[in-house]
Amino acid sequence: MKEARVIWTEGMQFVGAADSNHAIVMDAAPEVGGANSGARPGELLLIGLGGCTGINVVSFLNKMRVKFDSFHIKIRAESATEHPRVYTQIDLTYVISGKDIPPEKVERAIELSWSKYCSVGAMLEKTAKISYHYEIKKPEEQL
């Protein structure tokens, strides 16, 4: 069983940690009483999604012996207009840079992540329509 704890520090700020014991500061925007001293909880969901699928994809690419210079995921999300403001649409763009990267291996790595391994994505798919695509860039185009 996974465990986490969230401790209120002051104002609207909280510090959370889970089994790995790495602390994360969360806070609200100033317009709702926060001090903007940490990430918003909803932002952490998107970051967690990117981390989950990103770890999968890098692992699969490494197993396929695909060499790359850089890799990142751009994530855009739309929320419902009424509370609870769940994410209703999430779009991910996988951006990989390197020489002679085979598109079919990138596609396969992403597909494996989504079809079987990304638990965060599986949870978010319950409320959001998730779409994804990828871009392969030459080494000189990397971000």
Q: What does this entry look like structurally?
A:
With 143 residues, this protein is of the alpha+beta class. It folds into two domains: 1-39; 41-141, K homology (KH) domain (GMP Synthetase, Chain A, domain 3). It has helices at 41-63, 103-117, 119-124; strands spanning 4-10, 13-18, 24-26, 70-79, 87-97, 129-137. The chain has a three-stranded antiparallel β-sheet, with no helix packed on it. A three-stranded mixed β-sheet has the order 4-5-6, with helices on one face. β4 and β5 form a beta hairpin. α1 (41-63) crosses α2. The radius of gyration is 17 Å and the shape is elongated. The mean pLDDT is 96.
In short:
The protein is an alpha+beta fold and 143 residues long.
Q: How is the topology of this model organized?
A:
Layout: E1 4-10, E2 13-18, E3 24-26, H1 41-63, E4 70-79, E5 87-97, H2 103-117, H3 119-124, E6 129-137
Parallel strand pairs: 5-6
Antiparallel strand pairs: 1-2, 2-3, 4-5
Helix pairs in contact: 1-2
Defining traits:
single chain; 143 residues; alpha+beta; GMP Synthetase, Chain A, domain 3; 2 domains; three-stranded antiparallel sheet; three-stranded mixed sheet; 3 helices; 32% strand
